Amino acid sequence: MDGSRARAEAPSTEPSAKLFCCGCVRRYLPLVYREEIYHILRMTGPLVAFRILNYLLPFVITMFCGRLGNSVLAGYGMASATISITTAATGGGLALACDTLVSQTFGSKNLLHVGVILQRGVLILLLFCLPCWALLINTQPLLLLLGQDPEVLCFSTAQASFLHQLQVAYLQNQGVILPQVYTAIAANIANVLTNYILITWLDFGVYGSAVANAVAEIYICVFLYAYIRWKRLHSETWGGWSLESLQDWGAYMKLAIPSTMMLCFEWWIYEIGGFLAGMLSEMDLAAQHAVLMLATTNYMFNLGMQGATCVRVGNALGAGDTTAAVLTCKVSLTLTALLAVVQGAVLAGFWLGLLICVCIQSTFFIVVIFRLNWERVTKEAIERSGKSNLNRRQLDFEGDPSQSVVPANYTSQNSEASVIELTCNREQSKVRLSTSQLIIRRGLTTLAAVLILATGTSLHLTLPLPEVSKVTEANDTLNLNSTLQYATPSLQTSGVNQSEINYL
Fold first, then answer.
1. Within 13 Å, how many C-alpha atoms sit on residue 284's CB side?
2. Phi first, then psi: what are they for 170, rounded to 5°?
3. Ordered DSSP codes for 73-102
4. Which Gene Ontology CC terms are recorded (predicted)?
5. Is 494 helix (H, G, I), strand (E, B) or coil?
6. Residue scoring higher pLDDT (164 or 498)
7. Rg of the chain taking only CA atoms, in angstroms
8. d(CA 240, CA 157)
9. Which long-range contacts (CB under 8 A, 24 or more apart) does 245-248 make?
């Protein structure tokens, strides 16, 4: 009896023992679930901190703009909404393909191919910048046609950057997260100083805020790049620039296009409120932007758990372990549901319409996840990883147990030999593009992007702005007459002459 009691009271050696200290929890919750919860939460914490710090960059700019008045804050709000539903949403969707490809390739232990995927993403996003610039330089006339205030719109084309997302995908899906937190802290400090110097000290107003916003994106990109070079985080996954990055753009876009559409539709639901508020008044637009910033900060907790889940599932699929990927999905869905209950209790009653839409969307995703053919998904993940010679020893994670996809004592029921054999056959049968074909296809893609930019620039230089100023002036006159009509009795009692009113 004493021996059994001593064994029960002996400290557990598994990593999850740090989190689950209660013997009752360990008794009723299986070890495999405890380990998965531990690894997800261990990765979620730094991810939430990074996303909140990253989102503080525009949040700080919002606070500085709010000190300049409703007009400036409304201008920044309209600029943010415009950038979000056009370039940021589409560019972010294109970068999401790297999340899938990098996590699966890293899980398959084909480390050098991770750098090739990053190069491919950089080239595609750099080409995508050209159509984005063509759209942004014509943002003012497009929004004037929608009835927005020109005093607001002149500030709406001063910011655009999403290159930082590729760096995040490159590190995050390798399980490297803390460097992002460190660089985000440094970028926030530099951002506050820049906003203070440009807006408060030099009194550049909203233009200083626009410059500070652009510089903030440069800060976080440069700081993270410098940290990667300093700590040599790229040594195992970066083999230098290669022509291999020009291959297989179709497979990348096959993932990027649906990701872009998904992200655009999700962001448009929220950002359309900014355009509707902009049609009312600057005060309504400023209030809408401030509320949306606070709500998005609360959303960072969900994004942190989503990022951790994507890394775990992608690594498991790349390693050929279907069972571990399914386990991660079940555990993460349960944790997300618990988090949603807590947030719903705190935010009860806010934005009921959006809440209903999100509940319907979540139900659809849950049904799709549980009806998904995970064996087929695993085969596709191994194929995307670009590994032609895999064996069971290469699929196992070594070293620190916290870096493994599944617990050390967890045995997968998957048959990986057949999956690997099928992948090798597909790799051998894949047709690669020749050098001449690469030059023609990528050259045509580059030419199309340049032509779009040239067309947008020509439209911006040749076409005049829409004639909506008269309507705006008429509305302003009507509002002024209404104000004077109600203000006349009080003005008369205050001794104001009628000539002064006529002058107004």
1. 11
2. -65, -45
3. HHHHHHHHHHHIIIIIHHHHHHHHHHHHHH
4. membrane
5. coil
6. 164
7. 27
8. 35
9. 245/116, 245/119, 245/120, 245/123, 246/120, 246/123, 246/433, 246/438, 246/442, 247/432, 247/433, 247/438, 248/120
Residue 57 CA to residue 408 CA, distance in Å, equals 40
Question: Both tokens of residue 27?
Answer: 């008794």
Q: Give CA–CA dist 457/375, Å, rounded.
A: 49
Phi, psi of 431, deg, nearest 5: -90, 125
Q: How far apart are CA 449 and CA 153, in angstroms?
A: 26
Most confident of 186-195, 198-207, 369-378: 186-195
User: What are the backbone dihedrals phi and psi of residue 44, each rounded to the nearest 5 degrees, phi first?
Assistant: -65, -40
| pLDDT tens profile 131-164 | 888 887 887 777 677 665 555 444 444 344 667 8
Which of the four pLDDT bands, split at 50, 70 and 90, describes residue 468? low
Among candidate residues 310, 259, 311, 252, the one with its CA nearest the CA of residue 113 = 252
Gap between the Cα atoms of 132 and 264, Å rounded:
15
Strands in 199-256 per DSSP E: none
Work out the angle at residue 308's Cα, subtended by the Cα atoms of residues 296 and 192, and round it to the nearest 5 degrees.
45
Question: Is 499 a residue whose pLDDT tops 60?
Answer: no
Count of beta carbons in the 10 Å neighbourhood of residue 234: 17
The token duo for 376 is 């087929």
Contact (CB, 8 A) for 61 and 118: no
List phi, psi (to 5°) of 303.
Answer: -65, -35
Torsion on CA atoms 462, 468, 470, 475, rounded to nearest 10: -160
The residue behind tokens 């996003």 is 125
CA dist., res. 171 & res. 165, Å (int): 10
From the number of C-beta atoms within 10 Å of its C-beta (0-12, 13-18, 19+), residue 44 rates as: buried
DSSP state string for 151-204: HHHTTTTS----THHHHHHHHHTTT--HHHHHHHHHHHHHHHHHHIIIIIIS--
Per-residue confidence (pLDDT) for residue 119, from 0 to 100? 92
Look up residue 188 and give its two tokens: 């926030």
State both tokens at 111.
């480390």
Give the largest Cα separation in the chain, rounded.
103
Provide the angle, in degrees to the nearest 10, between the axes of the packed helices 31-66 and 282-318: 150
Residues 6+ apart with CB under 8 A from 423: 379, 382, 383, 387, 388, 390
- Four-CA torsion 489, 493, 499, 504, nearest 10 degrees: -60
**Count, residues in the chain:** 504
pTM for the predicted model, two decimal places: 0.72
